[in-house]
Write a structure and sequence with these properties.
By secondary structure, the chain is an alpha/beta fold. It has 13 helices and 21 strands. The radius of gyration is 25 Å and the shape is globular.
């Protein structure tokens, strides 16, 4: 490797964690470089995750609006709106390119971060490269670009950050390797949608894409292995979403014991092209075969941690392939930190950004100490200035219609810990704003501490739940009580009153409450 460059911080990856890291590094006047490995610059969120999926959810919602109209006063003709899927994807591509340029490429340029395009691998602390040959590098962290446009480049730094993200995970299923199927990444390349599709998985990716495809005219069936969709969230949320989806016309089958996946039997012989898919499963002991024109596998993600040189530099991984880090995002190599999806749940863009920011602070100390010259010269951890994240106060959102949002402890978790639970649930159909606009799907549940009355968990399904959850997040984060929420005047009529109503349910019978009674 002859093309060598030295920096304070070198980063493997080009997504949210990486860009939060270079932002913090810039504040500390640190020189930075990143090797963008895998997806185009910007990572999962901008390229194949949040940005395209939310854009397409809005497209499908607009197409579905007239069909789902609840008002007798609004008359619609028999000609329903049609979605040109190829045009929708063209619009998505344009949006993604604009985000990628303004929010990533231009940002990296602003912070004077050098970007190397290609597949990057870490080199061990003794300078042993991918081929095993020793090098003369004296820096603590080194990344070689071994493939791609910048192949042959070597970047070295005082510290390294691994933020390589994740990719779709396909579970070991008999026959899956023998057929074609979509993932959340490859569906964005399909300009001609099938008439029907079966989705394996019941998490947020399955629900968001299931609703997108259904609302643009695809017949959708969702197969979930566990007893409810959104199995990692409060149980009421999954049951409510299944009810809402089935009411909309999306078939949801739970408690599947998958047997195998195959192409349907044809008369074309073994060389015939695949013309559909059949999923053989068992539900409650009864065999069931679900057929469709296409298969969508939405069973989660796996970390991008293979073949990037972790073993060579002494970075250990967990059984699931995620990089093992401590609460300060330091790996088992003291000069290497990791952040984002590659270290595991919660795989959220905003969490990855926070982790990337904190990793830099922990690796180099705070900008304030560095600028004031008060740094002791020791590592930030030795100075007890490390920062971490309280993941219990991180909200999770599913951007379906209705939306799903949650923060903090679930009822079951609280019961397991305390042997009791003080919980209240109200239905959105009892909230004045929901009744006024005839959008009454959903519920709000509040979990409070049985002694202190502090709010420890809030779980909701309903219109604008993604926006409503922030008030609940602040309540959980700062230990507000249900009486603090009740005592706060909320604007009327708003959906946010649902959270206040759920808190009032601890103090009174809300069925005998007028609209604005405190």
């Amino acid at each position: 490797m002859e093309d060598a460059h030295s920096y304070d911080l070198v980063i493997l990856g080009g997504g949210a964690a990486s860009f939060a890291a270079i932002t913090e590094a810039s504040r500390q006047e640190l020189s930075t470089a990143m090797v963008n490995t895998g997806l185009p610059i910007g990572g999962t969120c901008v390229n194949i995750g949040c940005v395209p999926s939310k854009h397409l959810l809005a497209v499908s919602e607009s197409a579905f609006a007239s069909r789902d109209n609840p008002f007798d006063a609004v008359q619609c003709s028999d000609d329903e709106p049609a979605v040109d899927w190829a045009t929708a994807l063209d619009g998505t591509d344009t949006l993604v390119e604009r985000f990628r340029q303004t929010n990533y490429v231009d940002v990296a340029d602003h912070f004077e971060t050098d970007i190397y395009e290609g597949y990057g691998q870490l080199v061990d602390s003794e300078g042993r490269g991918p081929s095993g040959n020793r090098t003369q590098s004296g820096d603590d962290a080194t990344i070689d670009v071994v493939d791609g446009p910048d192949e042959g480049a070597r970047i070295t730094g005082e510290k390294a950050l691994v933020a390589t993200g994740s990719l779709p995970w396909e579970p070991p299923t008999d026959g899956l390797d023998d057929i074609d199927y979509y993932t959340s990444e490859t569906i964005l390349e399909e300009r001609d949608l099938p008439e029907s599709i079966v989705i394996i998985g019941g998490g947020y990716i399955s629900l968001e894409w299931g609703q997108i495809l259904h609302r643009v005219g695809v017949d959708v069936t969702i197969l979930q292995r566990s007893e409810r969709v959104l199995s990692g969230m409060e149980s009421q949320l999954g049951r409510e979403m299944q009810r809402a989806f089935e009411e909309e016309g999306i078939e949801v089958i739970i408690s599947n014991d998958f047997q195998r996946v195959r192409a349907p039997a044809t008369d074309g012989g073994v060389d015939a092209l695949q013309t559909g898919v059949a999923v053989e499963t068992a539900v409650d002991g009864h065999e069931l075969t679900v057929t469709a024109d296409a298969l969508f596998v939405a069973t989660g993600v796996q970390p991008n941690s293979e073949r990037i040189g972790l073993e060579r530099v002494g970075v250990k991984t967990n059984d699931d392939g995620t990089i093992h880090v401590d609460e300060h995002f330091q790996t088992t190599n003291p000069d290497v930190y990791a952040a984002g999806d590659v270290i595991g749940e919660p795989e959220l863009e905003t969490v990855a950004a926070k982790e990337g920011n904190h990793a830099v602070k922990n690796a180099f100390g705070s900008a304030e100490l560095r600028s004031s010259g008060r740094s002791s010269g020791r590592s930030p951890r030795e100075d007890n200035e490390s920062v971490s994240i309280d993941y219990d106060t991180v909200p999770a959102v599913v951007f379906t219609d209705p939306e799903v949002a949650a923060v903090g402890t679930t009822e079951l978790e609280y019961m397991d810990k305390h042997g009791t639970c003080s919980c209240r649930t109200i239905q959105m159909e009892d909230v004045p704003r929901a009744k006024a606009v005839k959008n009454t799907d959903g519920l709000v549940q509040v979990v409070k501490h049985h002694e202190t009355d502090e709010i420890v968990g809030v779980h909701m399904v309903g219109p604008r739940a993604a926006d409503m959850i922030m008030e609940a997040t602040l309540a959980v984060k700062f230990g507000l009580t249900v009486d603090d929420i009740i005592d706060t005047v909320h604007p009327f009529p708003t959906f946010s009153e649902a959270f206040k109503h759920a808190c009032q349910a601890f103090r009174r019978d809300t069925s005998t409450m007028s609209c604005c009674v405190e």
